[in-house]
Amino acid sequence: MNSIEVRNLRVSYDGKKYVVDDLNFEVKEGEIFGFLGPNGAGKTTTIRVLTTLIRPTGGTVNVLGMDVTKYGLEIRKKIGVILQQPSYEWNLTVENNMLIYGTLWNIPRVEVKKKMEELISKFDLSEIRKTMAADISIGQRRRLQLVRELMHDSKLLFLDEPTIGLDPIARRSLLSYFKSLAKEGTTVFFTTHNLEEADFLCDRVGIINHGKLYAVDSVENLKASYEGERTIEVMVDKDPIKLVEKLKQKMDGGVVDPSTSLDRPIKIVTNKVPETMEIINDYIRQETSSLLWLNVKKTELEDVFFKVVGEHHNE
Amino acid sequence: MNSIIRLTYRIIRSALDINTISFLILLPVGYLLIMGLMMGSIIHTFNYGGTNLSYVTFIAPGVVADQILMGGSMAGWVLWSDKRTGMLEQIFSMPFSRFEYQLSNLLAMILVTFGGALIMILVAIPFISLKITLFGFLLVFIFLVLGTLTFGSIMLALGATVRSNQVFNVISNVMFFVVTFTSSVFYPITSQTPGALATAAKLNPLTYVVDGIRSAFLNTTTAVDIYYIFILIITSAVFMEIASYTYKRIKLSATV
User: Fold this and answer.
1) CATH number at residue A232
2) Per residue in B11-66, pLDDT tens?
3) What is the ipTM of this complex?
4) Euclidean distance between the first and final Cα of chain B, in Å?
5) B6 shares contact with chain A (CB less than 8 Å)
6) CB atoms A83 and B90 under 8 Å
7) DSSP state letter for A93
């Protein structure tokens, strides 16, 4: 059974431009589905439709078998939502933030306290439990926001870039917890920029850019579909922008990272490694530049993402 | 527990801290004691509806009624605080309707307003000649509820519409000033009142709240005061509907 079914979803805020355009996908029960895309791709808008915060402009969206335009309240009773925007009760302690959240979800006081103790201990919040939310760090607030949502049971959990601001230990601990929730039957819809996280956590991923969904598959299948591809990382000491331009002009197929900067290798995903190396060699000779770094590796999820987004960058 | 009660509890518990509630109550008490007593040293007694009153006795019901403006602006402030801390969007993604959030905000303000009014009445007792009856208390409660629903809804609609906290604060301060001084809080509206001010007072719902509470305090309630209740039922229904309309269209954060 599908927890989410999206058909021809379109969303426009101004009636002119579609920020989400003709999306089609489904998420199976108990699955962890990763929704990947660059900034402004339409991830948060999609989550807002799925969580009934906004109405779609067109198409049909069913969450847990219910139409989002008709059964908003019923859907919201069964889902958990961690929004990208931080949210907290600024003048309550961490502990009281959790208690009041339990009250809002109408969980009996005894159960709330038991769950709170369990989560405080599991996510290492003991030291700040009596501190006001206004006085803790941004990362700690994010942790509180995440942990608070775990106070109640949900059949479907929406996580909009949940690990932003978290330290690596907290991040890993939360991702493992989400994995364990999925094993117990909770469906997880997860958006992230961090492709390592998606690789670690997700059963399937969808790649969205400019409001359109360009790929939906399991991480393994996506990697396999780019099996012949290789990722070349190169750094030169002179004018890397010029090298990027040259690669774009001369390469037949393949994608060059459009966000190149001086302190980061240029990334090229291609199935024509020797030809590409030749272009790089020519550039080094002509510009009397030195090679600072060169690496050729098998394509990872990050490279798949980069290639899909890059191919549709100018659309 | 009912959704509205849970949301109301949350607002009282988290959005309104003890300092804010104290300020909400102490400012009107200050008005009553400082302005009432100081002005009372200039205006000893004057005739109001055929009775000679001390100025502090006259102003006390006005300051109690003025409490609804404080409650109203707090309703808008709670909305802004929830927007700023991300709680508004979070609550909207929980099993509550936007109308329930609006009602709970108003209910919280009614509780604060009524609590403040009770404290002010207790503080005022030694200084004024209070002739209130049990029925009068009921009328005071009704006027405060209807007044808070009216002005709370106006401030919620404003809070849901304007795009920054600063704009909200400026507009609410101007409104506070205009609404207070074009009502009968500080002076009676009589045949000698300038025409424009008298018209403004007639259009101002606070005038009906103040006059109704004043009649209850002086035990001079007539059918006119019951007519005022009907006017306030209509204003509160209209402004609650407007607030509800703005809530449906409230802008969440701008992230795509």
Assistant:
1) 3.30.70.100
2) 988 877 777 777 777 777 777 778 777 877 888 787 787 788 888 888 888 888 88
3) 0.82
4) 35
5) yes
6) yes
7) B
